[in-house]
Amino acid sequence: MGYIAKLSLCSLLMLFASLVTTQAANFEIVNNCPYTVWAGASPGGGRRLDRGQTWNLGVNAGTTRARIWGRTGCNFDGNGQGHCQTGDCTGGLNCQGYGVPPNTLAEFALNQFANQDFYDISLVDGFNIPMDFYPLNGGCHKISCTADINGQCPNELRATGGCNNPCTVFKTNEYCCTNGQGSCGATNYSRFFKDRCPDAYSYPQDDKTSLFACPAGSNYKVVFCP
């Protein structure tokens, strides 16, 4: 094989590898709750999911600071304008930006570092709906948060339809870690969440036991009320 032929083959292989690692990821969002959930996604917008319905959402490689969550108690008009009891986002079915706490979050960054995706379930914005979040390739960690957090929520964190994180309620560095890395740690409130959902973020700097990685190019599944 000549030099040009070798170079062309090498270029094609590099192009193929680039296409494989930069393709969009599919997120299969499933509502198993016995009630309607209005899924929200940033990026992605929103979708009404009645019991048993699925929304397949494509997200481009390289997307960071992304999240998927469920909204409850929503009422939208024919133009998709309205509000939700939990997880409301900009007053519409099609979310522009993040939801209002309390809401259980599936967070992710695709192909962010060393050809890896990073993903987590976060309770830093509180909890409203039980959730599973996991890659579909079978080789990465499945995250679950299915405890009765709403029913057991401390009185001072209770909200209509959900349970607030203490940062939302008290807005201090002790709970919000606003003064930078290492400025806060676990509290009795964060332990309430961590004891019930060990794999989920219970406060903003709860990285060691709450952030997971999977090879870039994976597809994912988010299940409400698994």
Automatic annotation (TrEMBL):
Residues 1-24 form the signal peptide. Pfam families: Thaumatin (PF00314). Disulfide bonds join C33-C225, C74-C84, C89-C95, C140-C214, C145-C197, C153-C163, C167-C176, C177-C184. Keywords: Disulfide bond, Signal. The keyword Signal applies. Belongs to the thaumatin family. The keyword Signal applies. This is Thaumatin-like protein.
